[in-house]
């Protein structure tokens, strides 16, 4: 399934900006035909790949009650996501992590951020944005739209115990496509 034609400002040679990705995910999340095309599974997350603007990678994702991503980042990609149905919570870190060469870091106090995104709300983020996204509802599915540019080269997965963030695993595109 592909999203409607992207008709906002033209994408330049460097790819879409975070603002353009946000515009795309907000407009796509507001399209009931696209959102309604996603099969929902009561046990696990579901997803459909979408055609994003300017060569970006885009996804429509369903979130059963109580599910989440765990802590992760999107490496060198900038991105955006918007809630199309339900409510999502994003927990993020206001800190840039080293790109490589570490397995465990102690985070400074005050770096944690929490954002609640109801249907119709979205947010953009830059490279190396560390976060987890959760559907904390005990009964309601959530649906969201995500876009990344450049297309995701990898996702780093982290564990979190208090102030300690540990690198657990690195996923490559073959792991999720």
Furnish the topology, listing elements before pairings.
Elements lengths: L17 H12 L2 H5 L9 E6 L5 E7 L7 E3 L4 E8 L1 E7 L10 E3 L5 E7 L3 E4 L5 E4 L7 E8 L5 E7 L2 E8 L6
Antiparallel strand pairs: 1-2, 2-10, 3-11, 4-8, 4-10, 5-7, 5-9, 6-12, 11-12
Shape: globular
Order of helices and strands: HHEEEEEEEEEEEE
Helix count, per DSSP?
Answer: 2
Radius of gyration: 16 Å
* Contiguous runs where pLDDT drops below 50 for at least 5 residues: 1-7
Q: What is the second-level CATH architecture?
A: Sandwich
Question: On the 0-100 scale, what is the average pLDDT?
Answer: 91
- The helix-and-strand class reads mainly beta
Strand content: 35-45%
Strands of the biggest beta sheet: in what spatial order? Answer: 1-2-10-4-8
Strand count: 12
Largest sheet: 5 strands, antiparallel
The name of the CATH topology is Jelly Rolls
Through-space gap between termini: 15 Å
- The CATH superfamily is identified as Jelly Rolls
Helix content: under 10%
- Please give the domain count: 1
Question: What is the class in the CATH system?
Answer: Mainly Beta
What does this structure look like?
10% of the residues lie in helices and 41% in strands. With 177 residues, the chain is mostly beta strands. It has one domain: Jelly Rolls, CATH 2.60.120.10. Strands 1-2-10-4-8 form a five-stranded antiparallel β-sheet, covered by helices on one side. A hairpin with a 5-residue loop joins β1 and β2 (57-63). It is globular and about 45 Å long.
What is the structure about, briefly put?
The protein has 177 residues and is mostly beta strands.
